[in-house]
Structures are given as C-alpha cells and as structure tokens.
User: Which sequence fits this backbone?
C-alpha cells in the first residue's frame, strides 16, 4: 500500500506542472490562431463597427493577452473555470453536462476494444502462424486503417438506414421523458453504433499486442516447464502464456485513453452525441478560449488519473515496476 | 402532388428558376390540413442567443420565428410582398418623418399578458435601434415611437426615411419582444434571450445542449385554428451527412437550409416518401461574389477587373459547383427580387481571348512562365460551394495568366483576414440580399466603412459618384424614384466592377411527403409555421 502512496504523491506534484504547461500552451496556441470569438460570432450575424466594439468589450476581448491569461490563472487558482462567451454560462456547468456522456462512450469503447481485442489476441496467439492467426491479424489491421468517421457512416447506413435496427445518432430518444431503467436501456441502444465505431478502430492494437506477447511467451522456459508437467494446452494458453502477455496491455490502456478522447471528437460529431469532444470542436470554431481551456484541462486531468490508476494496477500486477519507482 | 417538387433535371433546364419561382401563384394542396403531431427536423447549429430582436440572423430565426413574431411577414401574393402579423396595416407619412402601424387586437404573450403598442415601442427603441445587428443601420434615425392607444404605434424619424426601406425590413428586423419581461435589468443578460417569450404559434419548451430544442403549441394563439402541430423538435445533427441518413431512416421529417448536401439531392429525391423542395427561400437569396482588394495596383485597374469577369464561366459554375441549384448573376441585386432588379446592365460574357486582350491592354504581359502576376485568393469557408468556387476561380484565372494562390481559413480566421487585416487580393464571399439594397447591399461597395465590419467594402474601393448615388437613394422618399436610383446603382456597379457577382442561390429543403404547407412564403424556413401540418 505505501508503494502506491509514494507513487501517488510523486505523480500529484508532477501533474500540477503538466497542467500548468497544458493551460499556458493551449492559451498561446489559441491566441496565435487568427480571429477571436467576436470574429467567429459575426460570421452568422454581420454587424456594424459599434456593435463589434460593444461585443469585444462585453466578452473582455479588448484586454491584452497577458491580462486575460493572468485573470484566467488567478480564477483557476480559486477552482473557477470562468464563463463561456458563446454559451453565456459557467464553463464548469457546460463541461459537467457533457462529461458523463463522453465518459460512458470512452469506457464502453475501451472495454470493447480491450476485451474483444485481447480475447481475439489470445485466440490468434494460441496457435501462432495458423490460418486464424493470420486472418485475424489482417482483418484487425484493416479495421485499424479505416478512418473513424467512415466506419461510423458505414455503420449508420447499414444498421440505421437500411436495416433500421438502431437509431442513427444522439444519446437518447429525443424528448421522450423516459426515466430509470427504461432510460438506461434507451441510452444503451443509442450507444451501440458509436461505441462500435470507436472501439473497433482500437481493437487491432490490443489484438496485435496480445498476439505478439503470446508468441514471445511461448518461447519462455516456464511454458516449456508447464508442458513438461503435462498440463493441458488450454491451461497453458490461459494460465501461463496469456497471463504473461496481458501485462503490457495494461500499460497500453493508459496510453490509449488520450487517443480515445481524440477519436471521440470525430465519432461524437458523426453520431450527434453531445459529448466533450464535440464541445471542444465547437469551442475551437467559436474561438471560445476559456471553454476550450476548460475542456483541455478536464481531459488532461482525466488522462493523468487514468494513467495513475494504470500505474497503481501495474505496481500490484508486477512487483518489479513499483519497487523501482518507489525505491528510486 | 404540387408543381414545385422538382427533379434536378427540370431544375437544370432553366437556371432562371429562381426568377420564375417568385411569379408562381400560391399553391393549392390536395391534402386537407390535419391537427396534431410532432414535427422533427434537423438543426445544424445551436444559436446561443435566441432573441431575434437582438440577433436578426437566419440561424436564430429558424427556431425563434415560431415563438417571437414580427410586425409583418414576407408573402408571395400580399401587397408589397407582405402579409400582416402583429401589425394589420402600415402607412408611411409623405415627408418620411413618421410611419404608423395599426396593431392586431386580442394578441396575448405566452405568459398571458396582453400585447400592446408599448411592446412595439420598447422593442424598436431599446432593442432594434441600439442592439440589433441590422436594425442599428435601418433604424438609426428613429427617435421616438408614439403610442396614442394600445393598438397604434407611430414611428418618428429624425431624418426623412424611405418607407419602402422600412417596409422591406419588416420581415427580418421587426421581431417584437415583451416589454414587461425585458424592462428590468440588462437586455443582453435577460434569461428570456435563451428561453424566448413571444406571441407566436409555438412556445419555447426546452433546450438540451447538443441534442434538441423543443417548441410546444400555443393554445392561445391569435390565428384561428392555428397552429396545427402540437410540437416541433429541432434535432441537432452537426454532421452534414447525418441529416440525409436521418431522413431516410424516418427519424426526422424535414431538413431545411440545405442540411442535405447538394450532391446527395439526386439520390434522395428518388427515395419513396421524400421530396426535394427548392421553393420557400426566395427572400433569403445568397450571392456568390468575388471580393476585390483595390489596394493592389493591378486590381485597381478596371480593365483587369473586367478581364477577371470575362474569365469566369458563370453557367459552368451554376452547373458544376451548384449542380444547377442556382442562377447566374448579372449584378448586385438578384434576378429574383421583384422590386429592384435591373436587367439592362453591362454584362461580361465568358470570353478567355477577350480577357487576355484586356490584360495585355492594361500592360500586364505574360512572362516567360506564362504568368502575368500572382494573387492571393481567399474563399470563404462557410459553404461548400464558396470553397469549390475558389478552386474553380483559381483555374479560371490560370487560363488568363493570373497565378492565384488559394488560402483556406476557418470562419473566424477568414473574417479577420478579409475584413480586418485586408490580407487578401481576391476573396470569395456569400453576401445576403435582404429584400432592399439599403439593408446590406450598398455597404458592399460604399467607401468610408471602418475596418473590421464584416460583409462590407473592405477592399479599399472608393468611387465618389457611386457614393453620392448611394446617399441620394437612401434619402429618396418616393418609391419609384428610389427604385430607379437603385437600378442606376446596379448599372454603375456592373460597369466599374468594385466586385464581381457570379451567381445567386438559396437553400433546399428535403421533407417527408407527410409535411404539408411547406414553402408557402418566400421566407418559409424562418417564418412562423402556424399552418404547417403533418398528414396522417
């Protein structure tokens, strides 16, 4: 347990610096992008010079960059994410409204790609070089090469337009006033396509890692020993080979979480899912700097947390890792 | 079925379709309107401020025009192209210093309070004039609104103001909001901006960010037996391909504002149960325009501008970029405008040889590499068509020895580059014609506009004769004389080419056969939909 605590303390201190760099970096990047929130807004309205000046003043855009950054950081210190200029609402509320959706999407997609990917990897790696091994490798690579939006659109055309088994988008049936289990089931049905589109893309990664790990493990002495002990093939595959190949996958899980967040931007747009990814896209188009900073900050915290969890899990699974970190 | 469900082929046979469509009589429907039902339609953006009195834009009207009404709405067959809404009659004084509106009796706000002339006075003076994007220009000389009784509002102007302009501005600029809701606190921060309260056939229900807007029937609506629908749901579909899929899957019954891309229309028109409708947007005509930076010495030469105009094959643009869903343009007023359009203007036929000759004459000979000079070309990113026309224009310019370098930006960056930084030589823009040249057309060529004003002359063009004509027209009260001045305006603009008008287009709706009373006025998508119904 102390091992985990040491790791936690170490990570927390490092994280604060990471977050500060993320905030300042994002702010500067957004400032470097031409056009501000008012430019983005007047695209759809037009307006005269007086109105534009009025808007810039109202949204605080007539202050210098440095003042705005300092104000933002000062507010952040008080755990205040500020006010969104396009939504005219506190950013904390806007993000909290979207976060659960993205989390459900990410967790389900990760579970799908990790679960199915490693299972298929075990299946393929149980007989390296066999037909099923080669077939699965090629098929999963093909999936990995497919752009997310395209996979999403194909799924929509097949399952929502032609077969009409599943809804084409959204997170739940519109204005249906469902509650409780009924609503949960409704959300689950709506999630099938987006989760599949997001999850299938990353499935190949886990499959191939699992397979490679297993191919490696087959050559290890303990597998030879297990064979010599006369264990069944099934037992050797599951208890000895697969179990050892599983470890690097856990690391991958942490690294993957950041990519998953990126992938959800596209998938959320295609399936009209009201999540954080789509919000980020809208915030960039609207040049809503504080909103985007809030989203990126939330995502960064999320990724840091997931990686921390992965490391803690890893420390338990493989004593060597934790010992070296804690002892250093 | 009615006569306006047209296939692409019939559309292609005459690009004057836009012109012809305004002349069509009101359509008789075989079906009888039915009560009840929920209309679900696609929305591609989520306006944050839903107050149409402050933000007069199509994105806002699309939703809020069902909740908040204007004094009058555009009409195919009404007098002066108008149909009464909150006002039942209107009259301008001969001296142009006042305009009198008689208001509708027995109208109630959604919160039950009566609608009176005080609401009109408040909206005009406290919102349209100081805050509204378009009203700040049109109502700039409005000084007072007298309310002799509850049903009469008399607008007073400091300077003679043409009543024709006020009349033409009514459909878009005259949204009336309740005084009793807005008189307390800052108007811009009023919660009713996000949950509007109006007099319209539908009440604001709820908004789930990223998901939908719900409007519900106003059972106290002043229109007899209206509205027909119980509910309208705007489903937010940010991806442009999903509206077509949602229509095919019968999850939505309507996609307005060209939510279905032009390239998909041919296929979707063949889907049983769906119809493609090109009518109902005549009052929302967009113009495809080449904006020119006259600070470039080459472009300051009218011969070079004429050469560019001759290099553009407008018919080809209509056929390939717009797939036939557009009309070629002759000048700064679209052909389908019933009041102001002038056909007798200088035109520039597609003629590459002539364009080359004009450039030689102007002294820009081709170099050894076949190029005369290079230009920076910025197509506006707001529409697929403006981007595609940018690609076409680059090729068309190459044919006359002008090397155009495309610069692609997103919306905010494009607005800043063109209208604030003037970092362009040529730009492709889609200005909107709003029924009167004085609302948003003359500023495209007028000089003296401050930097940073979008959709205005930011190309440094200065023509004292044209400026004088614009000023004179803005002060001319007589409708015929004023109309003639704007016809002269079109002739001068097309002769000197401060900008080049290429095509005119509007939007397309795709709807289920069940949706009735579609497209029955020139601003249908942004009108109140009191008579829209769903057949069983």
Assistant:
């Amino acid at each position: 347990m102390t091992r985990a605590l040491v790791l936690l303390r170490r990570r927390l201190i490092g994280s604060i610096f990471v977050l500060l760099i993320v905030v300042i970096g994002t702010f500067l990047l957004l400032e470097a992008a031409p056009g501000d929130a008012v430019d983005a807004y007047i695209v759809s309205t037009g307006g005269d010079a007086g109105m534009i000046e009025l808007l810039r003043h109202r949204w605080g855009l007539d202050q210098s960059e440095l003042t705005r950054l300092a104000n933002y950081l000062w507010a952040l210190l008080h755990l205040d994410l500020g006010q969104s200029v396009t939504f005219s609402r506190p950013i904390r509320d806007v993000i909290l409204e979207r976060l659960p959706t993205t989390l459900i999407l990410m967790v389900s997609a990760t579970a799908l790609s990790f679960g199915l990917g490693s299972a298929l990897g075990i299946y393929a790696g149980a007989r390296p070089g066999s037909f099923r091994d080669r077939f699965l490798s090629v098929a999963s690579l093909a999936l990995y090469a497919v752009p997310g939006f395209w996979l999403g659109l194909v799924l929509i055309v097949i399952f929502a337009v032609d077969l009409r088994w599943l809804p084409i988008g959204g997170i739940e049936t519109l204005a249906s006033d469902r509650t409780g289990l009924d609503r949960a089931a409704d959300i689950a049905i709506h999630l099938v396509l987006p989760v599949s589109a997001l999850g299938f893309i990353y499935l190949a990664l886990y499959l191939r890692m699992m397979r490679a790990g297993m191919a490696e493990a087959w050559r290890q002495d303990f597998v030879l020993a297990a064979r010599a002990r006369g264990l069944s093939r099934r037992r050797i595959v599951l208890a000895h080979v697969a179990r050892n190949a599983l470890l690097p996958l856990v690391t991958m899980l942490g690294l993957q979480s950041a990519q998953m967040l990126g992938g959800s931007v596209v998938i959320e747009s295609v399936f009209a899912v009201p999540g954080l990814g789509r919000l980020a896209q809208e915030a960039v188009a609207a040049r809503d700097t504080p909103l985007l900073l809030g989203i990126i900050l939330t995502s960064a915290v999320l990724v840091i947390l997931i990686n921390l969890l992965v490391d803690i899990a890893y420390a338990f699974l493989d004593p060597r890792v934790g010992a070296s970190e804690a002892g250093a | 079925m009615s006569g306006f469900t047209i296939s692409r082929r019939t559309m292609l046979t005459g690009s004057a379709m836009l012109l012809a469509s305004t002349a069509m009589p009101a359509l008789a429907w075989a079906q009888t309107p039915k009560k009840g039902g929920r209309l679900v339609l696609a929305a591609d953006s989520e306006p944050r401020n839903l107050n149409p009195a402050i933000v007069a834009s199509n994105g806002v009207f699309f939703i809020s025009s069902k909740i908040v009404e204007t004094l009058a709405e555009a009409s195919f067959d009404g007098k002066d192209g108008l149909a009464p809404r909150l006002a039942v009659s209107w009259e301008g004084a001969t001296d142009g210093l006042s305009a009198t509106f008689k208001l509708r009796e027995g109208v109630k706000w959604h919160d039950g309070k009566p609608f009176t002339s005080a609401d009109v006075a408040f909206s005009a003076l406290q919102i349209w004039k100081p805050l509204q994007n378009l009203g700040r220009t049109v109502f700039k000389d409005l000084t007072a609104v007298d309310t002799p009784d509850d049903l009469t509002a008399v607008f007073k102007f400091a300077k003679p103001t043409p009543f024709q302009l006020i009349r033409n501005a009514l459909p878009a600029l005259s949204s009336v909001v309740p005084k009793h809701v807005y008189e307390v606190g800052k108007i811009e921060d009023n919660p009713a901006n996000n949950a509007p309260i109006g007099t319209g056939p539908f009440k604001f229900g709820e908004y789930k960010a990223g998901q939908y807007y719900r409007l519900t029937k106003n059972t106290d609506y002043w229109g007899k037996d209206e509205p027909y629908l119980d509910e309208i749901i705007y489903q937010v579909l940010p991806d442009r391909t999903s509206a077509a899929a949602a229509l095919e899957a019968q999850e939505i019954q309507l996609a307005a504002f060209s939510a279905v891309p032009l390239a998909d229309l041919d296929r979707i028109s063949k889907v049983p149960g769906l119809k493609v409708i090109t009518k109902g947007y005549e009052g929302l005509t967009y113009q495809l325009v080449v904006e020119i930076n006259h600070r470039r010495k080459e472009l300051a030469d009218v011969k070079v501008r004429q050469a560019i105009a001759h290099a553009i094959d407008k018919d080809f643009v209509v056929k390939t970029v717009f797939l036939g869903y557009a009309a070629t343009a002759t000048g700064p007023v679209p052909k389908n405008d019933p009041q102001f359009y002038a056909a007798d203007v200088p035109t520039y036929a597609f003629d590459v040889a002539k364009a080359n000759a004009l450039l030689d004459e102007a002294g820009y000979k081709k170099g050894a590499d076949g190029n005369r000079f290079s230009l920076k070309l910025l197509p506006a990113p707001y529409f697929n068509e403006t981007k595609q026309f940018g690609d076409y224009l680059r090729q068309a310019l190459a044919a006359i020895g002008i090397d155009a370098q495309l610069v692609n930006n997103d919306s905010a960056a494009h607005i800043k580059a063109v209208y604030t930084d003037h970092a362009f030589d040529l730009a492709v823009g889609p200005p909107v014609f709003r029924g009167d040249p004085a609302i948003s057309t003359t500023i495209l060529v007028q000089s003296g506009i401050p930097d940073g004003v979008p959709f205005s002359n930011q190309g440094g063009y200065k023509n004292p004769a044209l400026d004088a004509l614009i000023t004179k027209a803005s002060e001319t009260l007589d409708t015929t004389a004023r109309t003639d001045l704007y016809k002269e305006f079109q002739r001068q603009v097309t002769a000197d080419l401060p900008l080049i008008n290429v095509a005119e287009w509007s939007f397309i709706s795709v709807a289920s056969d069940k949706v009735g009373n579609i497209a029955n006025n020139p601003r249908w998508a942004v009108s109140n939909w009191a008579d829209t119904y769903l057949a069983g």
